[in-house]
């Protein structure tokens, strides 16, 4: 038995710890009728929630924020056990992100929802006055992923709730317990249980949610599944937000601080074992500093501590399941077979458990290799050299994804000029990933990275 969440029967799922295989729980899958009933209950409860003063909805978020802060260690421990990431990482990339998102909603809800006068200059309409009024959609269906099982659905849920919507959440079948903990925190904060319901199950449950009477869907996951969600939504003209991943490039110029840039590359490629849509998955380094940069990365990757992340000094945990490990393994093997230099890792760490893969560094990769074309979602850093700024931009844009990118340089003006030419939703200078942790910043991308 591998350590992914398994289907025990057609009606239940088993949640397991991906580091140890420990069974964490067995839960009943929602039937299509139960999904539709959940949406009906949400729809019945939503008008009264919308009618509340904004201050009353904000008060629920404040209580949620306080309870999450008080229970942060326990929630982070649950995330570590079910998703595999180190506890300290769960605190920083999940709990703190949600606390900040709650604060953003609390701080901005009144201003965002206030009616906005609509001045105009049309002389024929001189006597007319208008205003913009923001109203909730109604019931929001959220289909959430396993890699950030708390922060992603929580930030989406909080925004939906504070603006007067109800939520029905379908978490990944691999991390259902974390979603139920989010639900519990909201209930104890005083939220009507009908306003935030969790429906458990795999793909068919998500399909039932799409077919139910929801007013908008938010999906985070793979391109293939996202396309199916988009097609189903289009048939109903259902508003949809699709966040479908990335193949984020990192450009290192010859004037960059290589100590900082190499640390950034290792951190941003290995955090959450590389299972982050904003991970650095392609690294392009100017030829004059290429070998020095690669050597710095090799030294730092070699020092990473890998293992079960609960209550330890571990810096990288396991992959979520063996299927994901095989994807990484196949891409690394393909790169090596095509001539890439394997400088670190490149092997399973079976001595730690079935889902561990060593932090991997590949040099001299080329654009035709799978690891430079397909999303890896694993602990691998492929590095290639470039000569000119134009070359770097062309390489960065040579992808079907366009979620995020980063430029590392000692010359901010030069970095911003390159950033402006990269087709990505977010481009950071001398940083990576962290843009998602800023609640004020939008998150999204172009091409196969999604819409909305």
Q: What does it look like?
A:
The protein is an alpha/beta fold. It is 41% helix and 18% strand. The chain contains 14 helices and 20 strands. It has helices spanning 32-51, 54-70, 72-83, 87-113, 151-162, 176-188, 203-211, 223-236, 258-270, 290-301, 322-337, 370-373, 389-397, 412-419; strands spanning 6-7, 12-16, 23-28, 116-117, 131-132, 139-143, 166-170, 196-198, 216-220, 240-243, 248-252, 280-286, 341-344, 360-363, 380-386, 401-402, 404-408, 426-429, 446-447, 450-451. Helix 9 packs across helix 10 (290-301). The two termini are 39 Å apart. Residues 1-9 have low confidence and may be disordered.
- The level of helicity is 40-55%
Mean pLDDT, all residues = 96
End-to-end CA span: 39 Å
Q: What's the oligomerization state?
A: single chain
Q: What's the arrangement of strands in the largest beta sheet?
A: 13-14-15-12-11-17-18
- Identify the overall geometry: globular
- Helix/strand structural class: alpha/beta
Low-pLDDT stretches: 1-9
Please compute the radius of gyration using only Cα atoms.
23 Å
Number of strands: 20
Range of strand content: 15-25%
Helices, by number, come to 14
Major sheet attributes: 7 strands, mixed
